[in-house]
Amino acid sequence: MILERAILAVTPGSEREFEAAIEQARHVISRAEGFRSFALHRGIERPSSYLLLVEWETLDDHMKGFRESELFVRWRELIGPYFAADPEVEHYQALAV
């Protein structure tokens, strides 16, 4: 399992519209091969900042299967207009500790 962590900076004042759009986008990403789960958190100190956590079966499911698909195009059409900056994305792998 791979955890995708994305920091999403949204244009101040557009938070309500972004949250409505990402609810629609959640239904898009959930159709991707290897998708497991989705969680979104809003910043307290910076309310225009969001933490998106998406679990994938494999890194390729995200980077190739989703990012190179029409689903990703639709995902970005829905939420991209609200970005104040490019998302900061990293991937994590669970450790058996």
Describe the structure.
This protein has 97 residues and is of the alpha+beta class. The protein has one domain: 2-Layer Sandwich (Alpha-Beta Plaits). It has 3 helices and 4 strands; from the N terminus they run βαββααβ. A 4-stranded antiparallel β-sheet has the order 2-3-1-4. Helix 1 (15-29) runs antiparallel to helix 3. It is globular. The mean pLDDT is 97.
- Summing up helix and strand content along with how strands pair, one would put the structural category as alpha+beta
User: How are the strands ordered across the major sheet?
Assistant: 2-3-1-4
- Which CATH top level class fits? Alpha Beta
Percent helix range: 25-40%
Question: What radius of gyration results from the CA coordinates?
Answer: 13 Å
Strand percentage: 25-35%
Run of helices and strands: EHEEHHE
The best one-word shape is globular
Give a quick account of the main beta sheet: strands, pairing sense, barrel closure: 4 strands, antiparallel
Q: What is the number of strand segments?
A: 4
**Count of separate DSSP helical elements:** 3
- What do we call the CATH topology? Alpha-Beta Plaits
* Assembly context of the chains: single chain
Q: Flag low-confidence runs.
A: none
The domain tally reads: 1
Cα distance, first to last residue? 15 Å
CATH architecture: 2-Layer Sandwich
Could you report the average pLDDT, rounded to the nearest whole number?
A: 97
